[in-house]
Structures are given as structure tokens and as C-alpha cells.
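Journal club prep — side note

Before the paper discussion, L.F. wants everyone to see what a predicted structure for a comparable chain looks like in C-alpha cell form. Sequence:
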Amino acid sequence: MKFIYNLSSRSVLYIVILASLISINLFLTSLPLTNTLGYEFAALNGILLFLVGGILICVRKNEIDSKSLNHLYVKYRYFLTATVFVPFLIGLGSSIIVSKCPIFDGLLFYMIISIPSFIFGMATGYFSVIILRKYAFLIFLFFFLLCLSAPLLEFYLNPQIFFYNPVFGYYPGTIYDEDLSPDHILIAYRIFNLAFFIYLVYISQKIYDKGLRIKALVLLSLFITIALFSFFKPALNFASNKNKLDKSLPKTLNTNSFTIHFPEDFSNSEIEHSGLLHEYYLAQINDFLNIKFKGKIDSYVFKNREQKRMLLGAGNADIAKPWLNQIYLNGSDYAVTLKHELAHIIGNKFGTTPFKAADNLNPSMIEGFAMAVENNFQGYPVHYMAKLADSAGYKFPVEKLFAGFNFFSKTSSISYIYSGSFIKYLADTYGVEKIKRIYGNTDFPLIYGKDITALSVEYADFLKEYSIKYNVSKAQLFFGGSTIFKKFCPRVAASETKKASIMLSKSKTIEALQLFKKVYNYSGSAQSLIGIINCLYKEKKYSVAEKQLVAELPNFRTSPYLFYLELLYGELLARTGSSGSVLTVYDSLLVQNPDIVYTNEVLLRKEIVSEGIDSLKTYFDENETMKFKKLLEINKNGIKYFSIPLLLQLSEKTEYNSKELLDWLKNKISVTDPVSAHAALKISQFALHHSELKLAQYFATLALSVNNDINDYHRYVENLRMVNWFVNNEKDIKNTFN
């Protein structure tokens, strides 16, 4: 009580500051991601404490009458201690009460980000007082806002979407990379910060009684120091610029419209195919939007997600920066997202703001425009997927979706699909020219003569009449996930799951199993359960793994991971049970029919188990080369169409002669049903990738032999369109390569 009395007598402001910190942190505990002691909690408190630290010094500026700050620390040490630890205790308490999340990473984040930020704020406040006592608060506020907004300049000028910052420590990039834990780069950055702010206090003491001229020169020298540090940030891994990306992706291909950057291990044939694919999708987008894009686009194709995450900040999500004319793609599956990212770039012709994006940076408009132009989600048109989601109860009213940043309130697939389908509906109904206008000015009454509520009613009526073959399992597969905001301990769970996976890959099975179990106990994530099963599988504890999986399967009845877990269950039954029980699980998956990938895998396993349960066990144990030989053997006396996609995939890894394989398949393939049509489609895509254009065209045409549902037909028509373009344009386009 004596402390509180003394504090109150000095300044009501301190009570207000402490009460504000308590109120804000209690509010944070009611929000997703900040309701536990973790990265987001630490970063937000870093901002708060930096601001509070500076304000405290500026308020007591009249007590700074010497070159030392020790007397201020002694005088206000209880209050300073409370300021630092009250937010921590609130976060800790919330973690203990509302979740089972581990707190070690959160403790580290708080120590590395929040506490130093408080010290840095005080140092900045002290420097502000020394520079010009009368306007100390305004000077501090200027420095605070300058530090806080500096990442915007990096984001605007550089490819990166991650940031290191003295106020909030670090921003990782997109919300789609969930795994995040303190690392050596963040620690190194904070050490640099600490050195700078110690120097700032030191130089402040040196110029305490100097004139304005000297202080101005010191201020100038500090800005030069900061500028030099910013210049060297890429070399220290605290930033990434174009030069760093160019060096990391040393192979380049120039076309009429692109400069494409590749990792060292991309072959010449892969590079040429990529160049053609880039030009094809650009031509498609030009045709859809009725434009002729002029300019040069930089496309960065990274070796893998880890390289992309290290250099860019987004491992799982491919991204585009329209104002830079740059796209950034994962090399393993870049073809899947290429058209979508190019649509973002082409959208800059109609965009607004300095970022050349949709009006008000509306995420639903940004992504909806790209999805409408792409009109492809897992091989289906966007209207099909929107109707599938709507029929399954995954609803998202358009007027709500396009309001503010509600785009991020649902699973990403739902937001992408509905926004894309709505914009595609507007394009089909009112013309493409109007979606180009609405992209840059989201005034719906001005462009369409109707507000978005009226248009959303029209769209709902359209969707109601749109006919599809409804499949609840397919809807669950695509839309059954959760956003990061609705998961339990998503950051630490993803980080620890990644660590456990690395342990398992290094055959540290026992340690990995313990960590996977720990993660599953507090998060209930499918990834950690799969990790547990894989560890037990590797230890050949098949019965234990089976019992564990059977016990946990009910928790995933509405999860998109259900079908993979059931496939895994069938594999465990093959290890421990009879062929009858295995077939029961596989037949159940065939009835559910979530996707043709599952159908093909189940049919393949049923084919092998028909030879005896031991044959399936042997198949599971074989390496890729032996599995490829097994598939060749299965197809020797007659094509098993369900095995063809995997056969093609394994042939790439075993370096089997692609031309020989294609010639062999040409004389054996006939299309009579959806499974054989899908096989022909995959053969066509395989042939196209290997520049066997005539064979690609032959199989693309063959794949259309079956009168599929119009929505299923979409992928086959699009594939034939692509193949025909390659046949007609390959030679001319390649002549532009250099």
C-alpha cells in the first residue's frame, strides 16, 4: 500500500499507464492468437512497452538533470518492474487458465521482444529529451512512428514480406505459415538493437550539455548509421532485396514478358517448359480481360518452401507484388498457382493505391478478382466449388465477405471460392469491363447501379440454380479445415510438430514420438496424430498404432484429414489384420469418394491385396524404384487405369525413359469411364511436361471421350486448350528465349 500511495502522489499518469496496460492485456486475452503467451502477445506488448518506456522518460524530463539515468531507475524501480511484468503475468495466467499451450516459446518471445522494447523505448525517450527538452515528447513520438512504419518501406521496395523491427521485434509474413519460434536470427537482430540503443544512451550522455549544432550533427550521424545498417540488413539475413533473390536463384530465362529466376537444380527442359507455361497463362489472362499486358514480370521459382520462407517470409503461400511486377512461387508445385499470381500482377492495370491493388486493399476483391480470372480450384470451376460449399453448409454471405477484412475470418478455401465465384458471376452477367472498374473503385452502386446487398441476392439465386453432383465428402475435404484464429496453440503446435518431424527423419523415433504426443495432448492436431502413428509404424508397433488411431478417429469425423487417416488405418490393418478388414475400410473410402486421388490409391491397394495380404505389406515396404516396377508388372497384362497417375509420378523419380513409357501407353489406353479419363489426362500432362506435344494432344483429346459432368469436364477442356496452345506456339515462343 505504501508503494501505491507514493506512486499516486507522484503522478496520476503512472496509475493511468499501468491501468491501461492491464486493460489492454486483459482485452488481448479475449482474442485469438493473443489469448496465450506467444509471439503475437509479445509483439503487441513490444509496441506498447516501447511507447510506455519513452513516455515515462519524457514525462520525467525535468528530473533528468545529470548525465546519469541511475537516479530515475532507483526512484521508479517498482513502477518500472510492474510495467514490464504485469503484461507477462496476465499472458501467463491466461495461458494456464484458457489453454494447455506450452509457455516456453512465449516466455522466450517476451524476453527477446517485449522487455528489450521497453528498454529501447526508454533509451529513445532519453535521447529525445537530450536533443530538445521542450519538444521531447513530440520528438519521441516522431521516432516511434518512424520505427513502427519503417517496415512499410521495406515491404514496398523489397520482395520480402517478413520484417525485423526494433519496436515489435519481428513480423513473420503471412498467416499461412503457422510454425514460429524464436531463432538465432531474431536473437542476433535484438543483440544489434541492444548495441545500438546502448550507444544511443552513451552518445546522449556525451552531448548532454552541448549546443544544438553538435546535437544536430549527432542526429544526422545516427540517421546515416541506421541507413548503413538497413543497407547491410540483407547480408545479415534481416531483410531480402532483389539482388539477394537473384543470387539465390542463379538460373534465369528471359521471354518477351518475363524474367524467370530458377534454383541451380532446375534442368534446361524444366526451364523451357516453365517459360512456355508463363507465356500461356499470360495469354489466357489477356484474352479473358480483353487487354494486352505490356511490361516485364519478374517470376521467382524457389527450390522449396524452406528456401522461399527464409528469403521471402512466406513458405506455404505463393504471393505477388503487383507494384513491383514480381511473383514468388514454390518450385515443387508452382504450376498450380502460377495463373492466380499472374492475375494479381495483371490486376495492377486496374488497381489503385500505391500498391496497385483493389480499392481500399479489400482482400476479398483482391483474391476474388484473381480467382475469377483463374477459374480453377483443384480442377473445378469456381462456381462448382461455391455451390459445393453452400450445399454442405459452409456458407459465407457475400455482403459480409466483402466487408473490411472478413475474408480472413473463415477457412481460406471458403473465402477464396466465394469471392472468386461472386466476381466471376459479375463478369459473366454484367461483362468483364465492369469487374475491371470495380477492382479499382468498390462503389457498387456507381458501377452496377445496385449495392452489394442486391447483387449478393442475385448471386445467391444464381448459385441456388447452379446444378452439381453433390458430394459431402468432397466438401469436407476442401472446406472442413479451421483458420489459424480457431486452432489451439497454432504457433507452438506447428513449430513443435516441425521439430518432431525433423527428429523422425533423423531416426530419433523415441524423441519424436514423445514430442508428437505432447503436441497432440494440447492441440489435438491431425498433423501431430499422424506423427504419432508414423513413429509407432517405424518402430513396427502396428497394433499399438492401430488402437491409437481407432481411439482418435471420432475426433476427426468432420475434418479434411479424415480420409487420409482412414487410408492410414487401412494400412495398419494390413499389417495387423486380415484382408477382409482392410477391404472394409477401403470400400468405405470408395463410397465416400472424396477425390479421385483417394479413389485411385484405394483401387490400387485393393488390386495388390487381391494377390494376398502379404503382397500389400511388401508393397508398403518397397522403395520408389521397386514400387515403379510393381506398377509396371500390374499393367503388363492389361492397363489398370487407377495406377497410371502414380506410375507416371514414380517414373520421374526413377528416371525411366519418358518417351518409351509414353509410346508403350499409347497403344494400350482407351477411355471408357472417369478413372480412365483421368489417367489419360495425367498422361497428357506428363507428355506436355516432357515436350512430347503430339502425344500430349492425342491423350488430351482421348480424355474427352467420356461424357463427364460439365463441372468434371472443366479440367479436361482446359488441358486440351493448353496443349493446343503449346502445339501452335511453342516454336515461336522459344525463339524469344534468351
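L.F.'s comment for the group: Residues 1-9 have pLDDT under 50 and may be disordered. Keep this in mind when we get to the figures.
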